Predict the structure of Sulfotransferase.
Amino acid sequence: MADFSPDMGEIEGVPMLQDICKEWDSIYSFQARDGDVVVASYPKSGTTWMQEIMDLILQDGDVQKSLRAPCFVKVPFLEMAKTSLQLANTMPSPRLLKIHLPVQLVPPSFWEKNTKIVYVARNPKDCMVSYYHFHKMDQTMPDPGPWEHFFLSFLSGKVSWGSWFDHVIGWWKAKGRHQILFIFYEDMIEDPLREIRKVMTFLEKNLSEEVLQRILKHTTFKSMKNNPMANFSVLPTSMFNQSISSFMRKGQVGDWQNYFLVSQNLLFDEEYTKKMESSGLRFRMEL
Ligand code: A3P
């Protein structure tokens, strides 16, 4: 773990941590298996939340089983580290895997196996604020600099995993061609049970109301914040320094209003309209 470096590189024009670039050949040639299930997202979109929900659905709502290991062990983050790849390769099926890759960089074997993928998307303003705090706390990420600097980096896609706009639009377009369930963070906040049911149906499970209620209870912001298997508190501070900012930070829609200046908001909205207009994809920035 101590070997992680915040240096940046690029894969097919997408900014990516140098550690990922170095391992790219083995990441891209990853072999999916029948029955694999994937959670995909742009960073800070509610991936860990969805991960917990999906794991619990696959474990038929068994909370003890869901507590068997920290989230990053039971759900390997494929592109993050050599150890995650090894973990995924040696894990018995059925596997639940996590990726942040833009759709064009997904290992082709997932498409060949017709893998089911749940993609979580979050409005870009909250995503940006969350990513800013994450950059400060995660010692393996580059220093974000002051907020006004990070704001421009995010807007121009010069951050790890690239442009938020390209990411969400790429996955949105791909959902007609593959088994992709597109879920919005804002919808999860609005009605988590409704979204849990959608995921359950997509995963072809049929869980009782009682089990669904248990999953709901175990995956609230408060439960996850207090759950050492979900809140990353088992990582050393040399990796995640949560005295700077908690991984489970606020878990809200609209927190961006505490950070965006009026001028930044105008600039952002202009760019958002230009980039998103023809995509047919809409986000709610407030509930
Ligand atoms: P904030 O930083 O805005 O609080 P990811 O898992 O993709 O890195 O996303 C992290 C974001 O999801 C953080 O957002 C975190 O607080 C939020 N989150 C995690 N679990 C959540 C939950 N159960 N309910 C609501 N938000 C959650």
